[in-house]
Amino acid sequence: MGLEDIANPTQTARNVHPFPITSLRQQRVSLSQLINKLNRLNFNEEPVIFNLKHRKHGHTISMHAHPRPCMDAELECNWLEEEEGNDQRLQSYDLTNFTMTDGQKLIQVEPSLVSINARQITVRLPEESLEARARTFKRYKCPDIKAKVVANSAIYQGRLLDFNAFYLRVALQADSPQTFDWINGNIPINLTLADKSRVVYVGDCTIVRHTNGRTQREYVLKPSRNQFPRFQAREHRSERRDLLPNLNVAFTHPITRKTISLKMVDISGAGFALIEPYAEAILLPGMILEDVGIYLTSRSKLSCTAQVIHRAQLPDSDLVKVGLALLDIDPMEHMELVSLLQQAKDPGTYVSNRVDTDALWDFFFETGFIYPQKYASMVDHKDEFKETYAKLYTQHPKIARHFIHMEHNRILGHFAMLRLYEKTWCLHHHAALGGYRKSGLLVLDRICEFINDTHFIDSANTQYTTGFYRTNNKFPVKFYGGATEYMNNPKACSIDDFAYLKFEMAPTDDDWDTEGRWELTATRKGDLVDLRGFYEKISGGLMLDAFDLTPESMGTSSLSEEYANSGFKREVHLMSIRKNGELKAVLAINKTDIGLNFSDLTNALQVFVVDGCGFKQKDFKFMLSLAALKYQIKKFPVMVFPTTYMTNNNIPFEKTYRCNIISSQSWDDYMRYLRSFLKRARVR
User: pTM for the complete prediction?
Assistant: First the structure.
């Protein structure tokens, strides 16, 4: 007998217990009910177990048989294992009873024997039988689930026979020189369960009991933990909401392959909790569930991947509360979920809702966010601005989010975010109507809650958040500057200054004194290595990682494709300036649709000066003109880092922009600062 045999529960009658005749939970089953249950077994191709007692020696045997369709009191069953030419042997046994189970309840039937041979048995069913709960926890069958046990560095292969949320029964094989004596029953073992394509569960278990085979054994295992934290514990956890009516959650169980439908009791942007009967629990802490459907209505659902992270029985109840963490969800569907939750918290706040663009423009002008000088820079392209914002605020592109506080269709506060780099979102356009300061702080709180709910989801690409602000703008200087000072770690939250100027391409200057061999060529990985060395020395912040200016990020284009799919344009070209072979600066030429940012910072040329020695004002202007000529741009914003290069070379610039960057790995620290800030502002 091999592993295939011991792993098949239809081959033997292991762990079949006598029917508890004295059970207080027993109830009677009529003949008609019994016939229906037998036909259900036939439909599922599931067996019953006949118990036979030897007439002379008194020992008993148990044999599995498949019931044939049953129309009346006479039942025919085919043995799973025929004993050819051995009719006489079975005729030496008396029929005691047969049993059937659904994994928890067990029915004992005491029929009268009609005939028996090596191929089948025929019986006459009684008018009544008894049904009782034979087990505290229901057992579930497991089709084609492989089991791997690691014990004391030895690996045993096998199959999962049946399981519930509290116990698992596996059949294992010991291949020479292995022996089951290597397994110490007092030390937890590690269990891995997998189907044909993926791992569905990994966890430590204790051994409850086992059979005594030499090369094959069955083990009953108990998971060691009721909690299985997926992510590092956070101080500022996502707020859970009890939605009414309770949402329904449905998924295909990774082990049983059956559709499970359970009620949700609470939900946040990071996870949710379900209720299941204690005695029928089927969710193991650590188990990963794919294609989970969160049904908002019978036809509207959100799909996600989730992992069971904890389980606890509700006090004075026969129910279990099971907590699950979101592992992956489509970013647009997650936005819908967070929008629903924020609406439940405050009906006046909205996430990426469809906006009346006329009301939006009224808001921008009324708040002074578009002041006269800014409007002067926009007016020649106002139609393009209108088209861009119509797409941003009515078509729900994946590259953008907006957060609005409004009453009666009047916008009171606004904040937006734009995916500017592969793993970086830029926060911009923060404004509130005069007299509605609280609205401005509310949208700040909501956008930070959104990031708090989102940054752990890889497909959301929220590894960094950045924002540009003027040094004469009191609120961001106080708020972002205060956050940087509070966190006091440039690898968690950093600020870098850019000199800003408007540059217009000039014709080539014939009198330009080259003073050496100059080059303007495509950036190489080595240039970005040197840029990092320079940046770490003078700043040590997050900018290069956030702006995709690292050797590892070269050649990535997924974000440009995402822009194109959303109907927008995005190009980033990296060029390097060298003098006599030595790197002087790295240029990042960003080309996007006009209007994605009012200050056009998304459509600018960024200059990162690595070595300003011998790189004078005339050289600077000439190299920028060459870059403008190559990429066919005439007049464009230029942002130069560091600002000291500009002042040391007497190059005039209009203003200074500060770039604040926060790492999502330190978002908990940032949220602590935000809560304190809002509390002082009497918002929370």
Answer: 0.80
